[in-house]
Amino acid sequence: MQLMRLGDPGAERPVVRSDEGTVYDLRPITADIDGPYLADGGIARARVALDAGRLPELDPAGLRVGAPIARPHKVVCIGLNYRDHAAETGAKIPTEPIVFFKGTDTVIGPYDEVLVPRKSEKTDWEVELAVVIGAKTRYLDSPAEAASVIAGYAISNDVSEREFQTERGGQWVKGKSCETFNPLGPWLVPADEVDPQNLGLRLSINGVQRQSSNTDNMIFAVDHIVWYLSQFMVLEPGDVVNTGTPHGVAMGLPDKPYLRKGDVMELEIDGLGSQRQELGQA
Predict the structure, then answer these.
(1) Nearest of 101, 95, 110, 60 to residue 239 by alpha carbon
(2) C-alpha to C-alpha distance for 72 and 32, rounded to whole angstroms
(3) I need a labelling partner for 168 at 20 to 30 A (CA). Which of 2, 31, 62, 84 fits?
(4) Which parts of the chain have pLDDT scores under 50?
(5) Under a CB-based contact definition with an 8 Å cutoff, are residues 127 and 242 in contact?
(6) d(Cα 147, Cα 77) in Å, to the nearest integer?
């Protein structure tokens, strides 16, 4: 089962996609897939309604695919969480998770246009596993408790502008929060259907594969990340946590092939679907 949101920006309708690929309207049980819905047992209720045949079938043809979660309070990101990515950037292996934020308005659909910022010369890609929080979370006692507060998983593209991020002083947020810089989706897959530490993830630019790895190469596993974050902030239902990217970003390649208008990014993670974005110009 996969949860999705279909329709124009700001007017998406919630749907559920069965394992056979049929799409059903979730509006009989919720107006949207958001934090309150997830906190109220929304995934379990969707599963019950789907199994009971209480949801009308919906034809998705011609409908835009939006981000699978509406209005996250926070987009929290983990930097340098794969050893090979840390190595390609010349950074030391972190001893604690590196934490930063993206603006929540960066979240767009998985096939929406991504805009190269004005004056940008170093726009970069990052395929990542995204965690969506399903319950209010604070001060977890151990990483083992994290599973109980995760609603599900999705693909995230943590698009970044490296000059803004690392060469302009201050915090990374300047290179992370440009408009359209967080395509998410297409699906939110329930946590009990995913092994987050055994997922292949891949990204290609203009048909050339640039990233290929597995989440078992993370320095800090998903459960550790969620536990760690809960010691410093309250995670709200619907919050998104981007868990880091493997090697193969433009910044780490010899020819530094940063993104330009007209380039095409294609991403996939095992069991979580795929994304495709064409680059435009802001």
Answers:
(1) 101
(2) 12
(3) 84
(4) none
(5) no
(6) 18
In terms of Cα–Cα distance, which of 91, 72, 79 is closest to 32?
A: 72
The single-letter DSSP state of residue 220 is S
Residue 13: partners with Cβ closer than 8 Å, 6 or more residues away: 5, 6, 7, 25, 26, 27, 58
Q: Taking the model in full, what pTM does it have? A: 0.96
* 174 token code pair: 């300047």
pLDDT tens-digit map of 79-119: 999 988 888 888 888 999 999 999 999 999 999 999 999 99
Question: Could you give the 3-state DSSP secondary structure of residue 222?
Answer: helix
3-state secondary structure 133-192: ECCCECCCCCHHHHHHHEEEEEEEECCEEHHHHHHCCCCCHHHHCCCCCEEECCCEEEHH
Pick the closest to residue 144 from 41, 221, 244, 43 (CA basis): 221
Tokens of 124: 């970069």
Amino acid at 145: E
Q: Token pair 């789907």 is at which residue?
A: 50
Angstrom CA distances, 26 to 50, 53, 55, 110, 132, stand at 9, 12, 6, 20, 19
Token pair of 226 as six digits: 């969620």
Write down how long the chain is: 282
Tokens of 167: 């060469």
DSSP 15: E
Which spans in the chain are helix H? 35-39, 42-51, 83-89, 162, 173-176, 222-230
Burial letters 90-101, b for 16+ CB under 10 A, else e = eeeebeebbbbe
